[in-house]
């Protein structure tokens, strides 16, 4: 509920030309009772009846937002309930609803939550309404209102929650947001399923002649139809939107419709608005008391109806206000306000000059039903003004205004009196009066010459102002302004006012000049004169430098003489002394003012030496010195002497005369044309016309260094035995051109490539060489091979680089090729030859002689053939064999890198003979033939052919085809031959076949078939390899009649029960989890009645390979690994491959290399390329054979190099007034090329580091004057720009390479605009030295304290031993326990052992202990600066830097 006056808001909606009226009740109880409405009713009428041009409350749409802004206007006519309202028009609003609820239909008992979000310049406030009635916390306990800031921080969220909704909760809901003078709202209908019902409304009051809109406040759902009746007749019938399941069709006859339309068109009294709103075009007085009935229907036939009464009210109309004329002060005045027309009740109110009547005027107001009167019993000037009468009823508000004025004679407010003004000052004279009409004030002045009165403005001639309030202002008072003046006041009422007054002008004391300067020599007389002007009496006081002058001495006399316009005061000094010098003040005063006259007396005497001679700035060829004047004598000039060394006499020193600068606090001079890096001494003396003072103590200084001005001498360049290397030697430049101690040399090597007209800076090599005595020499490595270089050398000192010498040309030696051949390809030409081809090497720096082709089988050694061409045929190779091939170029220096190995295979050929064959008699008519795979298959074996024929037969043998896929695990085949004749001898042999053809036959075996079948073993033995830990099956296929019995032997021992031996039903032997103990000879013996046969296997166990033993050699960007050749197993080399992985520290493992199929067995080394410089790596290698992998071998290695090494001083820095130049070549890369520099800086005392950009300045005249051009043209340079002159800076330089980042901080300053260096700042302290000094003092105090305690303890112990010796017999038992030695303390309770106090832990430091009288314990001691029981420092750790830097500081 909003407190305050009632407000009605009108909102215009363009779409349907309707207006929306809102009301907010300020005091529901008092106003509703006054208008006949119960204050505790819940069904307040809200806004359901209103004048048509003001529209009913929020017009119902499914969802509608409405904005409006408060704008005051005249009161509107009442259209419904008796609420006072104020009209508001729709305007632009700064309130915006960003989120709102929408129309919905709910069932009873359902929870309902409505939410609106609005934004504004300030957080808005919300009001919720239902059917035009404001909802508060008292509306219903089920209603909950809340308002909070939006979670996003933008806007305010308001929420209305209704628990356990009922049918009466239905209606038109609205949320309205207010902020300052603006508001906006949103409305939507909420329907609750239930029977229809209509809320009650009190009589609706509306102004006659105005339109009216009535909205039916119904609830319930669904509602199918709404009707309005007037005087028992239906005037409007509307079908309302409803749910689809409740829709019905209502039909009316066309005639009725036409008649209805015709009637409405004719009368135009009623219009049907949307959603059943009744529009009455015009309300007339005759319609007062009419009732309109709203009827709503549900689809099920339920009905509700409610009637609403309309009361037509006329707005009030006022007659003109009646005010008397010709009123005078003190009379009685009545102001009458009469009503001409209008319906009661009517309320009156009065305003004076637009405001409420002040109580101080004592105005009485008397009102009746139709008029109101103001009564003023004694009118005065304060009552004059505009009076407004306001009449208000329920529908209107009108007013009338009249003026009240009376005539009042003038009266003095401020009566003028005689006045004195000061000469030359601003003068003000007051004369003020009031009355009605406003009186006019005039100033007159009596003309002393003519004796008549004349206006002041005519006599003054400017500079005089007379204000309407009577104030007279004279801007600058002169003597002519003195005289008789008159102030006249009149307004036409009563007698005029007139007052004469005398204005006098007084002259304050003053001087014609401000002061004077006098100069005299010591001992001469001097006169000081002071002439103040002004009215008498004048008093004069003399002071010297603020202290009264002492006239008691006979040297000083004073005299004063009166003049016609002032006074003369004179001081005579017979002879002056040095103490008489200074500023004399003559202070004169009279009753009208004070003034002062200063006389500055300078006494000339021989000057004293200047004070505080100091060196301000120094550069390489100039120095600036300054000093302070002496205060005891006047100085006119200075004489300065300076000499280059301490051995030269002052008589031969150079002298300079310097004119004194009067306006400077300190005198200064700049010495030019000095020698760089030279020691000087300087002294100065003061002089004037009297004499020259003694010289000051000499000041010693050294000029700064300059870059060397000459090149090194005798530069020589020679080759070395290594390719890409040159040795450079030279002699230092002449001593007189060093311009400071040399710190080193820069050696630059620029390649001169053929076809390049200018040097190739991208391949330029520059190194820094530290200086040493005698001949200088360095080796340039990493140069391009077989390349002509131009080598030059320059010297440098802390100021910068000198010029480079003339280039000396030399060519580096050529080296081995640096890149491998590309495009290597290989293919088989025949079964014993391969063709290898590649692309030529085109790299520079090497005279290529030819190429070496290396090739090897998988198990064999490397072989090589050289060729000058890019194609080569390899002959006499093994048939159908894989060969690994790689190619490298070579020169006179050696072999270059190999190409990536590739594998190619020779072509197939006919196979060799089977390696073994055996034939057994399996029955009187059959044979079993067994054979092994050929040792030289020369291709893929497709099948075998078994040939059998009788020995005596000359016919061709019978042949049998056997597929090669039938080979057993031991690479042997068995084939039965049947249908033979008993008693005959047969010849048997086998041939192998490849895709090329049939191979060589095996050995021919002759065998005779007999009726007795001797036991035989068809399995073929031999050497068998098995991996450790695996299973091995040995075959023993037998034949014979009767069937033979078999026995297995291991190393001639019968195999019995063993956990790893298994005899199978086919007589084979299975060995599981085999190891070296199970290797050796295995024999299977088969025996029957007619004989025996056997087969033997030589079993060798292959172990997993041993972990390789790695040896590591680190390089800059590579790590070279070597390991031992694996030992032989059974006299045979192992077929082992290697897997290498690597990772950086804290990185992940990466595959680097695997030797499978690409590396021959005799190559036991590998180089891991492409690594980072100066980085730690972890390497892991495993060896792999057919059995498995070895345990990995781990090794850590670090590539050569380290993080950059920063210079320890600022020798690589140079600056001018706005730039600091850094030679980055002063940073040692420590073996790893520096990839990036970061430079940050901040002013001395600053807190924020700023990142610098490298901006080389243009070589203008300023830079060319201070720094050689060659200095700025150096590579690896960095320039900080846009700096302040004469300012100290912290400069932090970070250099990064592959090994890491090094950061160093330096202190450096820019020069002055003239290029002068500045000194250290006054607060530049060495913090490390301060810490060392404080620590040393603390250590000394602790040491003295310890010595004192030890001495006291020693004396106390001697006393205790003497006392114990006297009582040894009485205390024998105790003396046996307590030994009186320095290591054990006596048991006397007065004895105390002082030692280092024990620190208590957190668990026991608050515990209390009972002290035994016989216990030894430690008591903490107190020293200055320590707390009880604080640990005594046993060792002082002095802070210090392992790398001390003389000019390098740490920023605060």
TrEMBL record:
Stretch list, region Disordered: 25-85, 246-268, 1432-1452
GO cellular component: membrane
Membrane topology per record: Single-pass membrane protein
Primary localization: membrane
Record-annotated Fibronectin type-III domain positions: 609-706, 711-815, 820-909, 913-1013, 1104-1203, 1206-1315
Name of the protein in question: Down syndrome cell adhesion molecule-like protein Dscam2
UniProt xrefs under InterPro entries: DSCAM/DSCAML_C (IPR056754), FN3_dom (IPR003961), FN3_sf (IPR036116), Ig-like_dom (IPR007110), Ig-like_dom_sf (IPR036179), Ig-like_fold (IPR013783), Ig_I-set (IPR013098), Ig_sub (IPR003599)
Alphabetically ordered keywords of this record: Cell adhesion, Disulfide bond, Immunoglobulin domain, Membrane, Repeat, Signal, Transmembrane, Transmembrane helix
Membrane in keyword set: yes
Positions with biased composition (Basic residues): 63-72
Polar residues: compositionally biased ranges: 25-57, 1441-1452
Ranges that cross the membrane: 1327-1351
Keyword Protein biosynthesis: no
Domain Ig-like, chain residue ranges per copy: 93-191, 195-311, 316-405, 410-504, 508-602, 1029-1100
Any Gene Ontology biological process: cell-cell adhesion
Pfam family, one: Ig_3
Superkingdom per UniProt: Eukaryota
Protein's cellular compartments: Membrane
């Amino acid at each position: 509920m909003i407190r305050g006056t009632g407000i009605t808001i009108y909102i215009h909606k363009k779409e349907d030309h309707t207006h929306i009226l809102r009301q907010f009740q300020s005091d529901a109880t008092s106003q509703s009772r006054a208008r006949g409405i119960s204050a505790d009713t819940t069904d307040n009428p809200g806004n359901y009846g209103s004048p048509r041009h003001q529209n009913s409350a929020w017009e119902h749409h499914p969802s509608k937002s409405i904005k409006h802004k408060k704008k005051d206007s005249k009161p509107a006519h009442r259209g419904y309930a008796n609420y006072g309202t104020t009209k508001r028009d729709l305007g632009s609003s700064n309130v915006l609803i960003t989120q709102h609820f929408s129309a919905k239909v709910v069932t009873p008992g359902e929870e309902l939550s409505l939410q609106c979000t609005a934004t504004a310049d300030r957080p808005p406030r919300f009001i919720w309404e239902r059917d035009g009635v404001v909802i508060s916390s008292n509306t219903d306990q089920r209603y909950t209102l809340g308002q909070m800031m939006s979670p996003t921080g933008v806007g305010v969220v308001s929420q209305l929650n209704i628990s356990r909704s009922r049918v009466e909760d239905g209606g038109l809901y609205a949320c309205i947001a207010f902020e300052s003078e603006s508001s906006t709202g949103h409305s939507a209908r909420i329907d609750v399923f239930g029977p229809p019902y209509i809320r009650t409304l009190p009589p609706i009051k509306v102004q006659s002649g105005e339109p009216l809109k009535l909205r039916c406040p119904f609830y319930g759902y669904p509602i199918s139809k709404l009707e309005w009746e007037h005087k028992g007749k239906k005037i409007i019938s509307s079908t309302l939107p409803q749910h689809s399941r409740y829709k019905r069709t209502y039909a009316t006859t066309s005639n009725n419709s036409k008649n209805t339309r015709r009637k409405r068109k004719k009368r135009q009294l009623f219009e049907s608005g949307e959603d059943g709103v009744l529009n009455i075009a015009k309300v007339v007085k005759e319609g007062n008391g009419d009732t309109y009935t709203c009827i709503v229907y549900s689809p099920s036939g339920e009905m509700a109806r409610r009637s609403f009464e309309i009361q037509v009210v006329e707005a009030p109309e006022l007659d003109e206000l009646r005010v008397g004329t010709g009123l005078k002060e003190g009379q009685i005045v009545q102001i009458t306000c009469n009503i001409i027309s209008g319906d009661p009740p009517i309320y009156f109110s009065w305003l004076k000059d637009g405001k409420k009547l002040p109580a101080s005027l004592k105005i009485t107001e008397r009102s009746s039903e139709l008029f109101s009167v103001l009564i003023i019993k004694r009118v005065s000037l304060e009552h004059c003004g505009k009076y407004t009468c306001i009449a208000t009823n329920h529908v209107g508000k009108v007013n009338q205004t009249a003026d009240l004025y009376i005539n009042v004679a003038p009266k003095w407010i401020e009566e003028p009196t005689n006045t004195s003004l000061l000469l030359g000052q601003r003068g003000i004279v007051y004369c003020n009066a009031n009355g009605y009409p406003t009186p006019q004030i005039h100033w007159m002045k009596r003309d002393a010459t003519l004796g008549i009165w004349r206006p002041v403005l005519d006599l003054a001639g400017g500079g005089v102002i007379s204000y309407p309030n009577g104030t007279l202002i004279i801007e600058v008072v002169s003597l002519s302004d003195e005289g008789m003046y008159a102030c006249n006041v009149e307004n036409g009422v009563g007698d005029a006012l007139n007052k004469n007054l005398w204005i006098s002008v007084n002259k304050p004391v003053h001087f014609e000049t401000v002061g004077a300067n006098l100069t005299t020599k010591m001992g001469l007389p001097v006169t000081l004169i002071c002439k103040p002007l002004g009215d008498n009496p004048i008093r004069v006081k003399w002071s010297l430098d603020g202290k009264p002058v002492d006239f008691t001495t006979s040297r000083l006399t004073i005299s004063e003489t009166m003049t016609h316009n002032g006074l003369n005061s004179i001081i005579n000094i017979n002879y002056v002394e040095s103490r008489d010098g200074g500023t004399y003040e003559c202070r004169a005063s009279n009753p009208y003012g004070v003034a002062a006259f200063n006389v500055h007396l300078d006494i000339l005497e021989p000057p004293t030496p200047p004070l505080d001679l100091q060196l301000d700035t120094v550069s390489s060829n100039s120095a600036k010195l300054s000093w302070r004047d002496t205060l005891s004598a006047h100085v006119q000039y200075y004489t300065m002497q300076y000499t280059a060394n301490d051995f030269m006499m002052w008589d031969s020193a150079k002298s300079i005369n310097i004119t004194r600068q009067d306006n400077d606090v300190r005198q200064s001079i700049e010495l030019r044309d000095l020698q760089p890096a030279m020691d000087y001494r300087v002294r100065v003396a003061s002089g004037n016309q009297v004499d020259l003072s003694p010289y000051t103590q000499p000041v010693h200084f050294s000029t700064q260094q300059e870059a060397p001005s000459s090149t090194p001498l005798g530069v020589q360049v020679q080759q070395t035995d290594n390719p890409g290397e040159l040795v450079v030697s030279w002699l230092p430049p002449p001593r007189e051109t060093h311009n400071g101690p040399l710190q080193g040399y820069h050696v630059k090597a620029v390649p001169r490539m053929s076809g390049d007209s200018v040097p190739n800076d991208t391949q330029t090599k520059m190194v820094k060489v530290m200086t040493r005595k005698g001949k200088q020499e360095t080796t340039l490595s990493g140069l391009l091979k077989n390349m002509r270089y131009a080598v030059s050398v320059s010297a440098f000192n802390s100021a910068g680089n000198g010029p480079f010498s003339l280039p000396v040309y030399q060519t580096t030696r050529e080296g081995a090729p640096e890149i491998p051949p590309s495009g290597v390809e290989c293919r088989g030409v025949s079964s014993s030859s391969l063709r290898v081809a590649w692309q030529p090497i085109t790299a520079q720096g090497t005279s290529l002689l030819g190429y070496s082709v290396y090739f090897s089988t998988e198990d064999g050694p490397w072989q090589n053939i050289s060729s000058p061409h890019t194609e080569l045929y390899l002959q006499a190779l093994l048939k159908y064999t894989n060969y690994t091939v790689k190619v490298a170029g070579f020169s006179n220096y050696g072999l270059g890198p190999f190409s990536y190995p590739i594998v190619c295979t020779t072509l197939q050929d006919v196979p060799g003979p089977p390696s073994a064959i055996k034939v057994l008699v399996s029955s009187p008519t059959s044979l079993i033939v067994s054979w092994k795979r050929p040792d030289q298959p020369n291709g893929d074996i497709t099948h075998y052919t078994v040939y059998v024929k009788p020995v005596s037969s000359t016919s061709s043998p019978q042949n049998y085809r056997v597929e090669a896929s039938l080979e057993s695990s031991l690479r042997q085949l068995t084939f039965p031959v049947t249908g033979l004749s008993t008693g005959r001898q047969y010849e048997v042999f086998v041939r192998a076949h490849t895709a090329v053809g049939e191979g060589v036959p095996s050995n021919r075996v002759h065998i005779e078939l007999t009726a007795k079948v001797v036991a035989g073993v068809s399995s073929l033995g031999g050497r068998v390899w098995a991996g450790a830990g695996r299973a091995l099956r040995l075959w023993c296929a037998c034949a014979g009649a009767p069937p033979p019995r078999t026995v297995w032997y291991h190393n001639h021992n019968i195999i019995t029960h063993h956990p790893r031996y298994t005899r199978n039903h086919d007589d084979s032997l299975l060995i599981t989890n085999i190891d070296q103990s199970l290797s050796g000879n295995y024999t299977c013996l088969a025996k029957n009645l007619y004989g025996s046969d056997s087969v033997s296997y030589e079993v060798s166990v292959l172990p997993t390979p041993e972990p390789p033993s790695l040896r590591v050699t680190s390089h800059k960007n590579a790590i070279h690994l070597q390991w031992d050749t694996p030992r032989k197993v059974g006299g045979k080399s192992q077929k082992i491959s290697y897997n290498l992985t690597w990772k950086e520290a804290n990185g992940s493992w990466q595959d680097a290399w695997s030797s499978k199929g690409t590396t021959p067995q005799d190559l036991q080394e590998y180089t891991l390329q492409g690594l980072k410089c100066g980085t730690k790596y972890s390497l892991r290698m495993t060896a792999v054979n057919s059995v498995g992998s070895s345990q990995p071998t781990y090794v850590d290695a670090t590539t050569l190099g380290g993080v950059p090494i920063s210079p320890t001083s600022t020798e690589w820095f140079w600056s001018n007034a706005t730039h600091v130049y850094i030679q980055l070549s002063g940073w040692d890369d420590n073996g790893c090329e520096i990839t990036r520099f970061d430079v940050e800086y901040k002013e001395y005392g600053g807190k924020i580091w700023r990142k610098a950009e490298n901006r080389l300045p243009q070589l203008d005249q300023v830079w060319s004057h201070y720094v050689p051009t060659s200095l700025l043209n150096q590579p690896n340079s960095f320039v900080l720009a846009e700096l302040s002159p004469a300012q100290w800076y912290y400069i932090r330089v970070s250099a990064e390479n592959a090994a890491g980042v090094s950061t160093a901080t330096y202190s450096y300053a820019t020069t002055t605009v003239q290029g002068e260096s500045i000194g250290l700042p006054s607060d530049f302290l060495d913090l490390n030295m301060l810490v060392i000094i404080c620590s040393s003092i603390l250590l000394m105090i602790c040491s003295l304290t310890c010595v004192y305690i030890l001495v006291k303890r020693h004396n106390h112990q001697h006393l205790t031993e003497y006392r114990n010796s006297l009582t040894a017999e009485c205390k024998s038992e105790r003396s046996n326990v307590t030994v009186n030695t320095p290591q054990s303390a006596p048991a006397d309770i007065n004895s105390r052992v002082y030692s280092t106090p024990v620190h208590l832990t957190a668990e026991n430091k608050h515990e209390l202990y009972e002290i035994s009288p016989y216990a030894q314990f430690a008591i903490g001691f107190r020293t200055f600066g320590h707390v009880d029981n604080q640990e005594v420092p046993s060792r002082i750790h002095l802070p210090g830097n392992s790398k001390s830097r003389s000019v390098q500081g740490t920023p605060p």
